Amino acid sequence: MQVYRHFHDLAPQAKGAVVALGNFDGVHRGHQALLGEARRVAREQEAPFGVLVFEPHPQEFFRPQAEPFRLTPFRARVRLMQGLGADILYALPFDAGMAARSAQDFVMDILVKGLGVRHIVIGADFLFGKGRAGDAAVLAYMGEMEGFGVTVFEPVAAGSGEAKISSSDIRRALEDGRPDMAAALLGHWWSVEARVEHGDARGRTLGFPTANLKFEGALRPAYGVYAVRVRIEESGGHHDGVANFGVRPMFESKEPLLEAHLFDFSDDLYGKHLAVEFVAYLRGEAKFADLDALKAQMAKDAASARVALEANRLPPNL
To answer: Which end of the chain has fewer surrounding CB within 10 Å, N or C?
Structure first.
């Protein structure tokens, strides 16, 4: 998959795609269905399958001081889009210039002149342009005028008779300590990706060495202990484990930290890039009487995590 961070002077092979247009935060089951339709149209028209997103997310531009809310920061989104078969990802900067661009200019300057799109696929509620003035009707009208097709994809329901799948519901599930519910809506385990940093090595002295990762630009789930699966980018290997996310009441951390212990693993992880999948919530954070009590609980947590991981080899609904 080719990734482009601009729309000017693109090579011929980067133009003429069938493009799914949206934010796609989480790349949940509804997004996957829309992207699947764009892929189908692209194959039918023998055109590249492209995805257009904005980076940073528009909400991050308009509300820079807000709490992190992203389900899929850029690196994770690239990986998921590639897994769904996208040939091209246009990750266009969302800045003051983009925010001020009218709906008509967005279509003409970016979609027509810049990308030379053949067909666009959007969700029924997609809005674009300054003041969110552009909608599906505007895009369809301009498509007729400029010679590109438009498909308006209807939302996917969470279940029979239920409301549509939304990223907001997934965020709430994670904040409530329900990674299983989030996974049922996502169609994949929710994960955090970061590079392993040096910590205080306290886990090693307790018999549970951990990889320490900082949350940056991602939603913060409920504090507590989780059963996790960890993918090491450099080797491609997957490992079961147990992780704590929070401020560590025993040691009073100032900032939340994710500490992941990989089962039956002894290699050096410092500097490696990990993706940690949250599979099951085991318990909330707690403060113990002493280190021996903490070590005993950590052993119980590891045993509970092994049981939970064995019972949840695939996300719900897969």
So the answer is: C
How buried is residue 290: exposed, middle or buried, by Cβ count under 10 Å (0-12/13-18/19+)? exposed
The class that CATH gives domain 167-311 is mainly beta
Tokens of 256: 């939340």
- SS3 readout for the chain: CEEECCCCCCCHHHCCCEEEECCCCCCCHHHHHHHHHHHHHHHHCCCCEEEEEECCCHHHHHCCCCCCCCCCCHHHHHHHHHHCCCCEEEEECCCHHHHHCCHHHHHHHHHHHHCCCCEEEEECCCCECHHHCECHHHHHHHHHHHCCEEEEECCCECCCCCCECCHHHHHHHHHCCCHHHHHHHHCCCCEEEEECECCCCHHHHCCCCCEEEECCCCCCCCCEEEEEEEEECCCCCEEEEEEEEECCCCCCCCCCEEEEEECCCCCCCCCCEEEEEEEEEEECCCCCCCHHHHHHHHHHHHHHHHHHHHHCCCCCCC
Q: What is the mean pLDDT of residues 285-293?
A: 81
Q: Fold for 2-153, please state it.
A: Rossmann fold (3.40.50)
pTM: 0.88
Give 6-21 pLDDT, tens digit per residue. 999 999 999 999 999 9
- Closest to 89 (Cα-Cα) out of 50, 119, 33: 50
CA-based Rg of the chain, rounded to a whole angstrom? 22
Residue 180 amino acid letter: D
Distance, in Å, from the CA atom of 262 to the CA atom of 210, rounded to the nearest integer, reads 7
Q: Are 193 and 275 in contact (CB under 8 A)?
A: yes
Q: What pLDDT was estimated at residue 250? A: 59
Distance (Å, rounded) from C-alpha 217 to C-alpha 306? 29
* Residue 205 one-letter amino acid: T
Q: Give yes or no for a contact between 110 and 35, defined as CB atoms under 8 angstroms apart.
A: no
Confidence band for 145, pLDDT divided at 50, 70 and 90: very high
